[in-house]
């Protein structure tokens, strides 16, 4: 694997772990796609830094379990601003 890909994967994981960020937030901050961030965290990082990969996976699992709540809050906010 190319060195810049490894560095990008580690950078994305650190961003997610330090800020408890979502894949979408990390992608926006790093200027890459959501699918690239997801692949970096779930696949590539395992071979580079398994401990960091496990930490990032925990954050992603929490985000996944809460996404329906964030979606409902976003919808509520949208309709509050329409009135």
Describe this protein's structure.
- The chain is elongated.
- The termini are far apart.
- With 83 residues, the protein is mainly alpha-helical.
- Helices cover 88% and strands 0% of the residues.
- The chain has helices at residues 3-19, 23-30, 34-48, 50-82.
Relevant terms:
83 residues, 4 helices, mainly alpha, single chain, 88% helix
How many helical elements?
Answer: 4
Report how far apart the termini are.
52 Å
- Series of H and E elements: HHHH
Task: Look at the structure and give the mean pLDDT.
Answer: 92
**Level of helix content?**
over 70%
Low-confidence stretches: none
Largest sheet: none
Report the strand count.
0
Strand-pairing-aware structural class? mainly alpha
User: Over all CA atoms, what is the radius of gyration?
Assistant: 15 Å
* Fraction of residues in β-strands: under 5%
Shape: elongated
């Amino acid at each position: 694997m190319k060195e810049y890909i490894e560095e990008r994967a580690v950078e994305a994981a650190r961003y997610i772990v330090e800020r408890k960020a979502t894949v979408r937030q990390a992608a926006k901050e790093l200027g890459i796609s959501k699918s690239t961030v997801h692949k970096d965290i779930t696949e590539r990082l395992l071979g580079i830094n398994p401990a960091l990969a496990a930490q990032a996976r925990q954050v992603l699992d929490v985000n996944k379990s809460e996404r329906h709540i964030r979606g409902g809050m976003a919808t509520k906010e949208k309709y509050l601003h329409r009135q």
